[in-house]
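Weekly puzzle thread! Below is a chain. First person to post its structure in token form gets bragging rights.
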Amino acid sequence: DKEGNFQFISETAFKVLGFRPDEVQSKMNFFDFVPDDDSDEIKKFVRKLIIQRKEVRDHEVKLLTKSKSII
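Winning reply:
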């Protein structure tokens, strides 16, 4: 949604990031997975996409896993 809350998360994403569905759904949003160093840039990018209602399939971002590793 417009605040970065997940509407759907695949099982593969849970496995890769190391979280269980109950740890994420309704408790965390996309920006919780973005490393602090990248957060401002990513927030601007995602908000722009939301405003423009665009879908992106080929943009890479760094994400934090449950163990705080960056992938």
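Puzzle host: Confirmed. Bonus trivia for everyone else. The longest helix spans residues 39-52.
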